[in-house]
Amino acid sequence: MRTLKYKPLFEAETFDMTPIIDVVFLLIIFFMLVAQFIVAEQYKVSVPGEIKTAQAKDAEKKHPLTITVMPDQERGVICAVGVEKLASVEGKDMKALITSAINDYLTEHKPADKTVRLRCDRAVSFGQVKYILFGISQSRAENLDWAVLSE
């Protein structure tokens, strides 16, 4: 008696995914360890449009001091210098408070680039920000970057 052996038309080939998964996990671990988390920008601010700064080279610099201006239902605006929230005051009191906070930061950290980055929520009007700008101008800061519309 004769036995016929059938050969399949297509042979199933396997692809070993283990090395690829190992490489992906190593990359994830590498980026988690190397990534620098920005503490100063932890406040949720709705900036109008895409953020563009006054200088394109800012991304390459170390992170400057960030002042975040957020709306407050009770008093108008809340201001944070770096990670420190300031007392909610208005007008000329805000100017003095901002000037003092910036000068204290620059004295303590002694950055080579005395740039202040201003991030304002889109709900905050210019009238509410003008005293903050006066405070920045009276401080020892040398440059100001401000988030603007991308139009």
Write the layout of secondary structure elements.
Blueprint: H1 18-34, E1 65-72, E2 76-81, E3 84-85, H2 92-109, E4 115-120, H3 126-138, E5 143-146
Parallel strand pairs: 1-4, 4-5
Antiparallel strand pairs: 1-2, 2-3
Explained architecture:
The chain is α/β, with parallel strands linked by helices and about 150 residues long. It has a domain at about 55-145: Nucleotidyltransferase, domain 5, CATH 3.30.420.270. It is built from three helices and five strands; from the N terminus they run H-E-E-E-H-E-H-E. The chain has helices spanning about 20-35, 90-110, 125-140; strands at about 65-70, 75-80, 85, 115-120, 145. It has a five-stranded mixed beta sheet with strand order 3-2-1-4-5, covered by helices on one side. Helix 2 packs across helix 3.
Summarize the entry for a quick read.
With 151 residues, this protein is an alpha/beta fold. The protein is built from three helices and five strands. Helices cover 32% and strands 17% of the residues.
Question: What features would you highlight for this structure?
Answer:
17% strand; 5-stranded mixed beta sheet; Nucleotidyltransferase, domain 5; alpha/beta; elongated; 151 residues
